[in-house]
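pls design
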C-alpha cells in the first residue's frame, strides 16, 4: 500500500472508518449505509466517493436495480493485513511436518536395520566376553532435525489457527 496524502485523508474521518468496518462484513448499497450510519444519503455518498478515489472501496454495478459498495483488495488488507502471512505460513508448516515425518520414518528404518546389526554384534561379543557390560549396550541416536522440523511445523500451524480464531472474534 502506498502511503500518500490522499490515503491519510481518506482514513482521517471516523465516518469513513465506520464505512470500511461495515463493508468488511458484507457489501452494502448507499441507502443501507446511510441507514446504518444514521446519516443523510448525500453525506454518505461524499465519504464513499473519497474512499473510492483512494482505492479502498469500489462500486459494483451488476446491471440490476441496486448498486453495491464493496471493499477492494487494498481495503481488505487495511482491515486484515495478516491474510498474506497466513497464505505463506500454512503451506510452509504443512511441508515442514511432512518432510520431518518422512525423514523420521526413513531414519527409523535405517536405524532399525543398524540396530539389528548392532544387536547381533553385541550378542556375539557378549558370548565371547560375558563380563563386559559395555559390549551389550547399543547406541541410539536421536533424530533431532526431523523432530525439530515437525515441532516447528506444528508451531506454525498453531500460529495460523490462532490468527484465524482471533480474526473471527
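designed seq:
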Amino acid at each position: 500500500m502506498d502511503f500518500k496524502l490522499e490515503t491519510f485523508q481518506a482514513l482521517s474521518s471516523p465516518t469513513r472508518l465506520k464505512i470500511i468496518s461495515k463493508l468488511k462484513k458484507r457489501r452494502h448499497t448507499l441507502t443501507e449505509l446511510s441507514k446504518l450510519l444514521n446519516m443523510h444519503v448525500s453525506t454518505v455518498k461524499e465519504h464513499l466517493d473519497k474512499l473510492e478515489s483512494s482505492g479502498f472501496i469500489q462500486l459494483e454495478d451488476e446491471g440490476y436495480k441496486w448498486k453495491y459498495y464493496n471493499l477492494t483488495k487494498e481495503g481488505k488488507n487495511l482491515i486484515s493485513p495478516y491474510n498474506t502471512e497466513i497464505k505463506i505460513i500454512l503451506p510452509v508448516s504443512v511441508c515442514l511436518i511432512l518432510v520431518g515425518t518422512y525423514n523420521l520414518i526413513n531414519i527409523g528404518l535405517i536405524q532399525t536395520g543398524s540396530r539389528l546389526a548392532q544387536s547381533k554384534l553385541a550378542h556375539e561379543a557378549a558370548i565371547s566376553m560375558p563380563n563386559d557390560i559395555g559390549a551389550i549396550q547399543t547406541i541410539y541416536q536421536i533424530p533431532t532435525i526431523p523432530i525439530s522440523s515437525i515441532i516447528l511445523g506444528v508451531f506454525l500451524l498453531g500460529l495460523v489457527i490462532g490468527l484465524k480464531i482471533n480474526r473471527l472474534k
